[in-house]
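Field reference: sequence -> structure
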Amino acid sequence: MTSAQRQTGLHGAVVLLLVFAWFAVTGWLRPLTLPDEGRYAGVAWEMLRSGDWLTPTLDGLPYFHKPPLFYWITGASLATFGLTEWAARLAPLLGATAGAFALYRFAQRQCGEVSARFALLALATQPLFFVGSQFANLDMLVAGCISVTVFALAQAVLQAQAGRPERQALALAYLFAALGILAKGLIGAVLPAMVVTVWLLALRRFRMLFALLWLPGIALFLCVAAPWFIAMQLRFDQFADYFFVVQHFKRFAQGGFNNAQPFWFYPAVLALLALPWSPWLAGAARHRYWADPQQGPVRKLMWLWLATITAFFSLPQSKLVGYILPAAAPLAFLIGDSAALGYAQSARLRRLWRFSAGTAGVVCLAVVIVATVYAPKSSRNISRILASRAAPGEPVIFLQKYFFDVPFYAALRTPALVVDEWDDPDLSHHDNWRKELFDARQFASPAAPPVLLLRADLANVLCHAGASWVVGHRRLAGQYPELAGGTEVAAIGEDALWRVPGRAGTTLTGRGCPEKPSASSAGK
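Structure field:
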């Protein structure tokens, strides 16, 4: 290794660490946001405590909405750092860091150090990207994998055209495409392939697609991506239909899912949540910028990448803000590279760039601080009281709601019992937490103890336990006479925690305890 190579590697390592530190520095401040962060951190915690690193479970029920990479990373993080918010957010932190560093290295190779630094700054201080890096769901992890894959494929194309070997870049692309599939499913490979195909067609270099089909890379992809899916199909007969048909194709093509938004939703999200950087995109829209004969192909890639991702996610009715994160990297490239062209010659441009960078950094930190001070829908305090008071073996019962963050914050060792109207014929028609648990139950072993209980089952559970802990809305105290003999231990906001002592042979309302669990149990 030459001295220049060592210096380049050291410089890259410093950039990598600084980027990770910037994303991670406030990742511990706010409590887990519900439902997403509580759900995914809770699944990772169940994987860790159960010791089953293959089958994700939600409240003990096999949960196949998403593949396991997030849970593997988060479970390992929780085992290393404990049940903390920062540990629960390591996966998106790694995804953001990978995507940002890939942007930096690609821009550095193709456009120079100044453009690379500007693009990295525009991405790292983009409020959409910064907040996403600290949000414990799968969106940033898959966005990082998609970004690395596209940059690596583009680098392979450009190196091949220059007559240089491209195998290392191709290997990286195939590896991260496989990780993208393990992060969130088919989009991890489909979106990079779509972006690069559109780019090569626009450049009239369609034959380069065949150069990207590399047999060792395909083998690497299959070795990384395929084993988990094969293992789940062998263990659960209906896995492939539910995971691919229901959660991929039907969710994309059909209505009836949550968060229906108009077609223009994502352009508006990018314009607003990339402030104050989004107005800088005007510089990259000028014809002389993207039509440059030398840098034009790379700049066209970024425009087509931005447009393809935005159009793809705008087609389905169901839209969430985090879906558009794979468009953040090309947006930042266009902003940073176009600004770098005139930075040295224009004092006004330099002042405006510094103002934008300072404002963006303040906005990023302000959003996290506001979210910390005004943290909505958190059960952290109730969970900590539950953890400090409950004895081992005492059941935890949720009334008419699944409290996603309670198993995580209370470090529950067994699934909670969830009381609701599980015999409602319309239950499967609504895209909510009830349907998640209801769908998951179809994969549960018939021998597994029921965790989804009907109202009629509650008295029996309370009767036979030494003591039980009940979490629910405060108004439910008057609707459940079974709670009459219990004690309200804590009430925070609209939710309350009750401790209900058991009584041998008699319920708290004076009726005799059933001899065995009710036949009406929804878990049977």
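Note: The first helix runs from residue 3 to 24.
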